[in-house]
Write a structure and sequence with these properties.
- By secondary structure, this protein is mainly alpha-helical.
- It has a domain of 26 residues.
- The protein is built from two helices and no strands.
- Helix 1 packs across helix 2.
- It is elongated, with a radius of gyration of 10 Å.
Length: 38
């Protein structure tokens, strides 16, 4: 949660808006988060 690379560099508000329009993006973000955690 310190630094984000690539598309994750966008602000949370921006990501949230895109997640609402693109459900697949939400899954991709969750996938990236899981990758960072694991």
């Amino acid at each position: 949660m310190m630094r984000r690379r690539g598309p994750l560099a966008a602000p949370r508000s921006f990501q949230r808006r895109r997640a609402v329009r693109n459900p697949s993006l939400r899954t991709a973000r969750a996938f990236a988060f899981a990758r960072k955690s694991g």
